Amino acid sequence: MNEGRPWWKTAVGYQIYPRSFFDTNGDGIGDLKGIIQKLDYLKSLGINVIWIGPFFKSPMDDGGYDVKDFLDVDPIFGKKEDAIELIHEAHARDIKVIMDLVLNHTSDEHPWFIEARKNRYSKYHNYYIWKDPKVTPEGKVLAPTNWQGYFGESAWTYDETAKQFYLHIFSKKMPDLNWEYKPLREAMYEVARHWLALGIDGFRMDAIAHLAKDLTFSDSLQPVGHRGITLDPTKFSSLPRLFDYLHEFKENVLKDYPHAVTIGEVGGNVSPEQSLDYAGYHRGPLNMVFNFDTCWENGAFGSEHKSDLEIATNVINLKQNFMKWYEQTQGQAWLPLYWLNHDHPRVVSQYGSILYRKASAKMLITTLLFLYGTPFLYNGEEIGMSNVDYEKLTQFKDVSALNYAREASQRLDEASILRFLRRTSRVNARTPFQWSSEPYAGFSTHEPYLAVNGNYPEVNLENQRHDPDSIFRYYQKAIALRQQEPWLSTVIEGTLELVDPLNPDVFAYRHLHHRSLLVISNFRAYETAFVIKDIVLGTLLHNYPQLVKKGLTLTLRAFETIVFEIETP
Ligand code: NOJ
After folding, report:
1. Within 10 Å of residue 369's Cβ, how many Cβ atoms?
2. Inter-axis angle of helices 272-279 and 315-329, to 10 degrees?
3. How far is CA 319 from CA 71, 216, 508, in A?
């Protein structure tokens, strides 16, 4: 299944974080009408599928991933009719629409949970995962296990009404659903069918690896921290029952919508080999999985005690990570390709350099576009938006950042916490889109819910639209090149290989087919020499005006990138 060329293999995707994209009603929050207004802009960029982050009714504890009504639109985003109009208007422009499907949890304000905590005997109680407390001989009430969730807290919260603990592997306002309970599974299939019937072209399936839990509910044997808890993903990731659920989802939901695409977010704990159980052409119930292996190769993650100077991209690891996924999945599965989403820092700050914003942003998109898979850009990437310049911890309005800051304040001073969040926080990706140099970056007429990056007078779309040398214009060119034949066939059906894999500065690869490509990218701010061993037939894309070449040796300048056509060996 899905060998060949389903539509999503030839697409270039674009992720929209709706709260921060464009505000049309002047409340400081982006909305669905804002996305509709910008569809022509997106079309001009050259993308043909948008993934829209959650826009369902939500108390917004976690940016809308805490859903209280899966079938309705939150008033901050508009009305249900706006969602229908958006799908329609996107389709009118040949743009497909994927939405987030959150199957792992709901908000604690969802009517199911409200009923579940009130009444132990209602069916909704079974929709969630409840456990009695552990009680010590002294009568102290303890959580059922030592499991920690992804947002730094215990994965269990005691509910005074139910007199039980409920499981939540994310925020305590996001109780996990009990996928063992068939009526719950059917309720969730109904949600998916509802949106497909309205014309949605597929789903990015949030936190999909976690639907099945270790039902023995035994303590993790990993060492615990000072709070007696430990994050042990083996307790709730990729467990065997998960694959039964996903196959059932496919049979129940997708059989009527064979062209819908499903991309599961599997995060950091799934190996390329295991990914075939999710998305292998022959045995996987999904079409693709998003993994995080290529997201943290500058050592920023876990770098609390490091200065900015100690952070540098490990280019060898980065290349190997892309290749290990390619080698395992080639001919057997397809991949999404991306530098960042709404959970990661901005890629120009991470693998590029804000001192070389233009050159490095162009270099990064070039490197990504001709690899194996469907590229997904993240809103703002196409104008080189970078990490925040916030001066206060309170500006990081995000549940995971604030949980981290609270916990870290016991060991670190405020300046170190700030530095770490500016480097790693997902808030970096979430600041309002910088449309122009108008107040609030032209995003809204009202003060935005999250402060705009201070660099907007300089970094904004309006400045770049008509400048032929801008990052935006380069993105247009680069996307168009990838989308046109013969290059589209080369990236879909060709063979990928690294060139000089142990070069610590340069990411270079060949994509070989009837017509072949050589992509060379310098990931450094310094010059480096690179010897070309192929027969070059022409230059297809370049982020500097001329090549500096002596014989076979190129001198690559800061963040220089080139796509050559080469003779197929
Ligand atoms: C992954 C989403 O990308 C992230 O933003 C969210 O916090 C968690 N899943 C929980 O839904």
Report:
1. 23
2. 40
3. 41, 39, 9
Interatomic CA distance for residues 18 and 378, integer angstroms = 12
> What are φ and ψ of residue 522, in 5° steps?
-90, 120
Q: Is the pLDDT of residue 72 over 60?
A: yes
Other CB atoms within 10 A of residue 281 CB? 16
Encode pLDDT of 169-201 as tens digits: 999 999 999 999 999 999 999 999 999 999 999
- Please tell me whether the peptide bond between 75 and the residue prior to it is cis, using omega within 30 degrees of 0: no
Amino acid at 90: A
Q: Which two tokens stand for residue 403?
A: 């949980």
Per-residue pLDDT at 1 exceeds 60: no
Question: Do the beta carbons of residue 359 and residue 540 sit within 8 Å?
Answer: no
**Sign (positive or negative) of CA dihedral 443, 422, 270, 184:** negative
- Cα–Cα distance, 341 to 292 (Å, whole number): 10
Q: 404 CB under 6 A from ligand 1?
A: no
Q: Please indicate whether residue 206, judged by its CB atom, sits closer than 6 Å to ligand 1.
A: yes
Give the tokens for residue 250. Answer: 């496919």
What whole-number distance in Å separates Cα of residue 493 and Cα of residue 472?
A: 28
Looking at residue 171, its pLDDT comes to 96
Q: How far is the CA of 170 from the centre of ligand 1 (A)?
A: 8
Which of the four pLDDT bands, split at 50, 70 and 90, describes residue 444?
very high
**Could you tell me where the beta strands, DSSP code E, fall in 329-399?**
336-338, 374-378
Nearest in space to 429 (alpha carbons), one of 54, 152, 20: 20
pLDDT of amino acid 309 = 86
Q: What is the rounded CA–CA span in Å between residue 431 and residue 96?
A: 25
d(CA 205, CA 327): 24
233 CA distance to ligand 1 centroid (A)? 15
Q: Looking at ligand 1, which atom is closest to the CA of residue 267?
A: 1
The domains located in the chain, with CATH, are 7-105+182-389+462-474 (3.20.20.80), 111-167 (3.90.400.10), 494-566 (2.60.40.1180)
d(CA 344, CA 262): 21
**Residue 186 CB-density burial (10 A; 0-12 exposed, 13-18 middle, 19+ buried):** exposed
Phi, psi of 282 (to 5 degrees): -95, -30
Tokens representing 249 are 């989802």
For 123-170, write each residue's pLDDT tens digit. Answer: 999 999 999 999 989 988 899 999 999 999 999 999 999 999 999 999
338: which 2 tokens?
Answer: 């991306």
Do residues 381 and 352 lie in contact, with contact meaning Cβ atoms separated by under 8 Å?
no
Q: Looking at the CA of residue 151, tell me the nearest atom of ligand 1.
A: 7
